[in-house]
Amino acid sequence: MSDNLSEDIEKDSIFDQKEGKWGSDLIGGIFIPPGKSKSSLQKEKLEIKYENQIDALVSEKDKSWHISISPDGENFLTFNHETLEFKILTVTGKDQNLNKVHETKPYKVNAEFKIEKLIDNKFSKWIVAISNCVTPETEEAREVLVAISRVTISDMSIIKKKNPVYDIKESDELKMIEIDGKKTFTHDLRDLKDMKHFHYPISLQIELENKENIHILQLYNLNTMRMEQIFDVYDGKSIGKSIFASSNNERIIVFSSGFKKISLFLIENGLEIASKDFGNGVKILFCEFINDDETLIIIIRRPEHKLEVLFWNLFNTKDTIKFGKNIRFVKNEENTTSISRIPGKLITINTDGQISSIFDSLINDCENYEEGAEIHSIVICYDKNKEGTPRRMPQSYAKSKYDVSMKHKIYHRRDLHAEETTPLIDNKEPWIIDNYERISVYLDENENIQLFIGRSTVQVWRKSSEKKIELEYIWTNNVEVGCEEKWGLEISDLIVGERCFYLKVRWNELKDGEFFEVKWPYRNHVTPINHACDALEHLNYRRNKLVGDKKQQGFEDMKDRISYIIWRFIKNKPDIWQLMDVRFDIMAKVIIGGTNMLVKYILFGDGKEKNWNLHVPRINRWDNKDEHKFKKKNSWKKVDIKKNLSDLQIAIRLCKGGIEGNRRSLIVAYLLEYYTENSLRHIGWLITVSEALPELYEYRLENYVRELFYKRCISGWNISNLVEYVDITPREIAVSLKESNKLRAFNPTSKLISTDKPQNNISLFLSKLYLKIFPNFSNQYPIVKVIPLYNFTVIKIFKLVFIPRGYLDNKKNEFSKRSPLIQISLLENGYDIFDSPAMEAAINYKWDPARNYFFRNFLVYILYTACFAILAGCYLGHIKAIGLLCDLLFLLFILYYYFGLYLFFAETRKFWRHGWRLYKEFSNFIDLASIVISLVITSFYITPTFSRSNAFADIITTPNITAAISFTMLILWLEFILFLRYLSSAIAKYLFIISNIIKETYLFIVFMLLVILVISHVFLLLLQHSDFPDLANIKPKTTSLTIFNNNGEIIGKSQQDFDKKQDNPSKDFGTSFLSTYSWLRDTYPQDDAYNYWAVQALTLIGSLFLIVIQNLILAFIWKVHDNTYEKGHAALLRYRAKLISDYEALDVINFSPPPKDPKYIYYVGKSKRYDAWMEGVEKREKDNVKLYDDYEKYMIKTTLSFKEKDEEDSWWNYDNNDNNNCDDDVGDDGDDDKNEEMNIDAKIALLNGKIDKILKALKLNEN
């Protein structure tokens, strides 16, 4: 950035010259220092630009010299394999100048390496390396480690056969040799028994055999040997020697296949952020980041073998591509060790063993030079003697309003006779309502450009016509809203020229000696655009300070003008905006600014562009030093919002309800739709979505989550086309997949696979045994997919070895530490999101360790129940036991209480965690009741009666005790069945169906019981006193029986004796209710007992009611069953997610560090609800449903209505000459087809533009 927060400088240092530069870079970019003229500056510029070419030391066809550089750039190793001697060179001085090299004497290694004869021009491959200094800085002697290795022809054949990658281990068989009297240890790499071998990844083997098929770039961490990222780099072009470079902050990686094109990728998400095509036939030799990762230096070779050095200024609109000095350099493709590089350095060695640094010779050529302007006036200066020089500007005040003097001082270019004048703009800070002090300065002779310095903003306005003014530039200090009045801008220096100014300001928030520099215009448009985005954020925090419609209109007008500046830049420089989005926090600022349509334009364009992609999601923000110093403790926790959150999270947290919250929720919808649309091409587009999902529930945007999980991208990204199945699938998973084709989620193999014979564990052995018995003849590898949700299953709680972590609190800060998967599972009230393959795969992955924990509890419960059953059986059977058998029963008591207390303690922990609400569910209530009741029954009845002499021989039982034990056993068996829900998905679904049917039909059952209660009461009134003499007409039914003997002869008769008091089915209310309830079993005790018309009539009426109710209940139960059966799988996943949440929060003692959850979950197979889920996806796609449709239809304005204005006087007038020194010419040599398509009129217009610029420059020189 050009604007810097700096320490105060000494007087007169503004114009001091230091090594050809002025004391202030900002002033140097605008004004000409005193004592200089334009002609002299132009001459200096030409001398700088047209220096002689760099004659780099050349490595021609010679293969004898090799070079290596230490990681810190201080030590060099040169080696000649013909003479078998090496030298160590040390660079002294902070600048690491190669002219200041300390060289050691040569060391011979001919005792270790024999000179090999060449056969068919083939030679040995040499690899050399040198370390940093290993001795402390306090010691005078400097020691470094040197490695020299040779790979012979025979070694190459071995490697080709076995395909190993070597990783050197510590060895006890080191050889000690002496080099010039110094003892040195060597290790022979041919001794393979001391080496650890790794298989090449299958995809890498294919690419090594056929370079045309290179599709991906895999980034490995050499410390862990794990793959960190995958980049899709295939562009259908031919592949040469691949070129790589990484930025110093390790945020960006550069890749080129070696021809024509170079691409930039963001490391954290693997997405391409920029590319540059240099034309057909162009070979790319080297590239490197310089200038704080803002410039990429590139060395290319044209088809005519012409070498060029290019500087790609990534964040610059004026000199995007700049030619450097000519260089004479030849790259030897066979002897790759004749060149060595580290970040920022490229070292070569020539045939004479001399070394040269290519980048050091070129790096100073990347700076931009710009002509300065004459100083018109030093308006304000800390040195009062300089104010008004070289000319004083007349002053006036803005015209008074309502007889109130305005505190608006104006500096003019013309001589005035009035004390009050009317400026172009008077108050462009509409949130301020008082008459505050402000300053304006006209920047041109016609007074059409006005600089406005307010309380917290600096603005430049231009008069475009008699009635129109346009905003050219705005800068804000972004102080807290409540502190703006006391932290107003204080001007230290104000210098103006023709259409330019330099301003040094501070405010009370800054420390003593700190200030901020603002200027206009800048060398390019990047910094002003960044300031414009700052202004949108600044205005947003002041929207509640507006008073009256006029202020509101002025505020909206200001937002529109700022948005227009940003829109126009994006339209003309979309590629620069895309890089700015990576470098700066501009997207976050635009989102906070609340300009919905501008956000939509950034994300989707105007619908005409393909692959717009101007915004890239990021988790980690670029470290902007200036912004970090400047913005602190701003209003509404702005720093926390921007530094710790993604752009999506910022948008969500601004949705705080009300009209403004509803309007801002549209931005959230735009972002989610944009990310999901692009994620079909690469999973990196959803890198920020996972962390934001729980916050969507918090801010009542859960509908977005449900719709998001019905996007096609959620089914997973097919990675099988990029990475081979065997390279990423663990052996246990690969074997188990041959047993069954069901969905399996797994943590992919990211490390290189060792060639050592792996150790088989029990599960792997059983799986292989199963396959031998039931072989699966399918040899096709399944498709591997990746859930595109980054860190979806990662829990943020650090697990310490041997230290239990206890239950988590349900407080917000503790809840947020759980994985996004668990958070949304607990927050979601429905079942729709659980139908998606992503949720099933993620829960499938997390369920295995949780199930193992619950299975251990199940085993404990089985042992506990078995102990109770044995003890209860011995108690009820009055078992007599003596001696060893009695001792075994006593041991059984001990085990019983141990298991019981263990289970009770587990339930106690659940109670303290969830409270009584946990036991509202029947299954959880039985979990607790089964343990408590059995312990109570045992402690009160069984344990006290046990005798160590004869066990239970002398006890006396009662029917009530027997019944209590029986019911307890029933509860224990019920708990046993419920425990199976942890282990069997089928039983869990059945239990869910039963419980859901009960929940949905309990009102019907209650109504039916109420009908039975009514009928019971009616029969109670009718039959309770039927034994009274006056109710003798209510006669009971009698049954006569005829008794026959074996010969069939009647030997007598028997008649039933009915007691109206004792045998009455409605003698009391309880009996009457049970008798009526038995109607449900198709028995009618009242009608069977009495022969009375009223009993028959009531039975007929009541049975009709119950039959209707029963059929209604059955019909409703079937309907609920069908609906519940469809939800059964989703309900199972939701239930398991709750169990996983409990498991992750339990006390866990880890005897070894637990494995880390992967960033992405991989899975194979097809989810059970995939077809139903896909139907929902296809229906939405057919209807072209967008996430923002529901909100956007209520918006009056859904697209930007800006039209680009063609104004030559505006600094924002983009033309084809912005990249004035060769961006258009980069690919001219190789892209002939495009040149032929350019018509004659376009060429003439381009030449006319260049001629006009030359004529303007000549006129300035004449003046």
Task: Provide structural commentary.
There is one protein chain. The chain has 1263 residues and is an alpha+beta fold. Among the domains are: 95 residues, no CATH class; 125 residues, Methylamine Dehydrogenase, Chain H, CATH 2.130.10.10; 135 residues; 127 residues, no CATH class. The protein is built from 33 helices and 46 strands. The strands form 14 sheets. Strands 31-29-30-32-33-34-35 form a 7-stranded mixed β-sheet. Strands 1-38-37-36-28 form a 5-stranded antiparallel β-sheet. Strands 4, 5, 6, 7 and 8 form a 5-stranded antiparallel β-sheet that branches. A hairpin with a 5-residue loop joins strand 4 and strand 5. The protein is extended and about 145 Å long. The two termini are 33 Å apart. The N terminus is likely disordered.
- How far apart are the termini? 33 Å
Helix content: 25-40%
Cα-atom radius of gyration: 42 Å
**Structural class label:** alpha+beta
Total helical segments: 33
Kindly state the number of beta strands: 46
Basic shape: extended
Question: In oligomeric terms, what are we looking at?
Answer: single chain
Q: Give unreliable regions as ranges.
A: 1-28, 41-53, 56-61, 156-185, 187-194, 208-212, 628-640, 798-805, 1219-1224, 1228-1239
Main β-sheet, spatial strand arrangement: 31-29-30-32-33-34-35
> What's the pLDDT, averaged over the residues?
77
Note the topology.
Blueprint lengths: L4 E3 L9 E2 L2 E2 L2 H4 L9 H12 L15 E5 L5 E6 L4 E7 L9 E3 L3 E2 L16 E6 L15 E6 L1 H10 L1 E5 L6 E5 L2 E5 L8 E5 L2 H8 L6 E6 L4 E7 L10 E4 L5 E5 L4 E6 L5 E6 L5 E8 L4 E7 L5 E7 L7 E3 L15 E4 L2 E5 L5 E3 H5 L12 E6 L14 E4 L9 E4 L8 E2 L16 E5 L6 E5 L3 E7 L5 E8 L13 E8 L2 E7 L7 E7 L5 H15 L8 H24 L1 H10 L2 H8 L2 H9 L20 H6 L7 H7 L2 H7 L4 H21 L10 H10 L3 H7 L8 E2 L6 H4 L2 H9 L4 E3 L15 H12 L10 E3 L25 H4 L4 H8 L9 H40 L7 H31 L7 H21 L16 H21 L5 H39 L11 E2 L3 E5 L5 E6 L13 H9 L7 H5 E2 L1 H52 L17 E3 L5 H13 L6 H4 L39 H6 L2 H23 L1
Parallel strand pairs: 29-31, 30-32
Antiparallel strand pairs: 1-38, 2-3, 4-5, 5-6, 6-7, 6-8, 9-10, 11-14, 12-13, 15-16, 17-18, 18-19, 19-20, 21-22, 22-23, 23-24, 25-26, 26-27, 28-36, 29-30, 32-33, 33-34, 34-35, 36-37, 37-38, 39-41, 40-46, 41-46, 42-45, 43-44
Helix pairs in contact: 6-7, 6-9, 7-8, 10-14, 13-15, 15-16, 15-21, 18-19, 21-29, 22-23, 22-25, 22-29, 23-24, 24-25, 26-27, 26-29
